[in-house]
Amino acid sequence: MPKRKKKRNLKVHFTSTRDDWETPQSLFEELDAEFKFGLDAACTYDNCKLKKYGLGIFTETTNALTVFWEDYIDPSCKAIFLNPPYGREIRHWVKKAYEESRDFGFTVVLLIPSRTDTLYWHDYIMPYAEVRFIKGRLAFEIRGEPVRNPKTNGIQYAPFPNAIVIFRGSYK
Fold first, then answer.
1. Looking at domain 13-167, which of 3.30.310, 3.30.420, 1.10.10, 3.40.50 is its CATH number?
2. What was the pLDDT predicted at 10?
3. H or E stretch including 90?
4. What is the pTM (predicted TM-score) of this model?
5. pLDDT lower than 70: segments of the chain
6. Domain boundaries, the chain
7. Which end of the chain is more exposed for a tag (fewer CB within 10 A), N or C?
């Protein structure tokens, strides 16, 4: 009789106790050097990467999904950074990024899980975006420090692959 395969626990790939994971500073700096961001569209005051410039700060009471990002971006910039919450609502963030790029001509750069099997990936990313897959797993931060594994105190890496998705604002 053949051995039964053990079921893998995939729950870790789709759940988290928090959704405010900070982008690793070195990755943000590399992208900012290329794109010159004028808005961090899904940040809070505590995790905003543009805080030192006084740009792109949304508060927890501002719903970035319901406002026009052009009202918040530094007028001298045409690029927006977006590391959205990775929960079930991520599809709304991807759609919003596409629409802001399409309607206002912004370049919108997203850091998101590489979930190529989702509808939002096929509806918005595949037809309209440039995708850069990240080699290896990211070590997200909280308050500028890498997240630590509570059991080992070692750096805790994301349990899923990530990608940089770029909407370049030329879809008309």
1. 3.40.50
2. 45
3. helix 90-104
4. 0.83
5. 1-20, 51-60, 171-172
6. 13-167
7. N
Amino acid 8: pLDDT: 47
Backbone φ/ψ region at 105: left (φ over 0), alpha (ψ -120 to 50), beta: left
pLDDT for 108: 97
Say how far apart CA 129 and CA 30 lie, in whole Å.
Answer: 19
Structure tokens, 33: 């050097």
- Tell me the two tokens of residue 65: 């999904």
Burial-class residue 51 by CB neighbours within 10 Å (0-12, 13-18, 19+): middle
CB 21 within 8 A of CB 49: no
For residue 59, what pLDDT is reported? 61
